[in-house]
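User: I'm curious whether this sequence folds into something compact or stays loose and floppy. Could you predict its structure so I can see for myself?
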Amino acid sequence: MHQSINGDLVNFDSLPESKGSILLVDDLPENLKLLTESLSKLGYIVRSVISGSRALKTVKAKLPDIILLDVKMPEMDGYQVCEAFKNDPDLCDIPVLFISALDEAFDKLKAFKVGGVDYITKPFQIEEVVARLEAHLTIRKQHKILQNEIVKRKEIEEILYQSRAILSGILNTSLDGIAAMQAVRNPLTGDIQDFRCLAVNPIISKVLKRDREDLIGELVLRELLENLDPELFDRFVIVVETGESLDKDFYYPTGDSCWYHYVAVKLSDGFAIAIRDITARKQTELALQKSNYKLQEANHKLQLLANSDGLTQIANRRCFDDYLATEWQRHQREQNPLSLILIDIDYFKRYNDSNGHQGGDDCLIRVAREIAKVTQRPTDLVARYGGEEFAAILSNTNMEGALKVTTAIQTSLANLAIPHGNSDVSDLVTLSMGVASLIPTSELSPEDLISQADRAMYAAKHQGRNQAIAYDVT
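Assistant: Here's the prediction. I'll summarize afterward.
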């Protein structure tokens, strides 16, 4: 698009898109009118004054982006006005373009000397004026952008400085050891060969027994870890390569401290580590563990005492009752056979009378051991049922299996060969045994099993002793 302005043909399509505000200073109204009309039509915001003094009074009301200033004016010429602008801190950055009929080199040099950025001679062409305005407005905008960037950079630098100061304060006053490490890789394989220390606080240097100056920037980690824990280096490599954090306690005596806890996390191509002295806590934990162990040991002993017969050291009647109830429920649920053997030492009262209570106790102990040797499955239980009577609970065992156990018990006791001079059936200690076997149901109870085994045992006694009688519970 072209338009004729004052006889000049202006190509508006070729004009830059950016516009700005302009202050015109000229004592000739016709010049002001011409420039105002031409520049306003081109999209500029134009203000005009007819003297330098008025320009100095009105310019601060709204700062222009650029000033077009005539040289020859009454009272104050353009050079004086420009000097006044440049001496004012609020106005000194506004570019001044001189427009004058003076065409001598001296005049132009003086214009630049007082602070002008350009010089246009009259008569002028509007295209030239627009081109020079746009050039200086572009420079002006770039200057403002640069100034803003400088301000932002200074603000960022100040924030970074404060952040570094805060981080430095945290590092130096933290009760935990803190350090940052950078991976150093083999240039050919890319494998991590060592770590360079980027930051370290006094606690870390104390733990490692090295000065901070000797650590920062140096490849020291691999060497230090060789004395601490050779596996740690590979663990730190895994942290960097996989991003998985590492959290662990370790023992390392240093002065009054010996236990530490560390957390290592990936940080760029390296890792950050925090170390805390947990000696006091660890000592407390170890003391509690020791105390708990002793307590568990004492509880175990108490449990043994509560469930063991004091003389024979096999299970007592209380333990028998509890175990039979538990096994009854399990066998009822699984529908497996459960057997019980009740055992009585034949003519034990005579044995006790002739051998004394100590001899009788020794006999009970030896018999209990032999019965326990035969029934060694983890699910079986041998108990002292009362006086000279014993009981054996046989899990998952039918009548046939239970009778095999009674035969084994008789054989084992015969091999023991405990003399019994007052027995009517043998010159050795013998046993009468009653066996009962069933699959538990809701219609029966453990007492039914005990009752049948007891009947079978008394039947064995009445039928001559030194034998086993079996009853099926139906």
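Summary: The radius of gyration is 54 Å. DSSP finds 14 helices and 17 strands in the chain.
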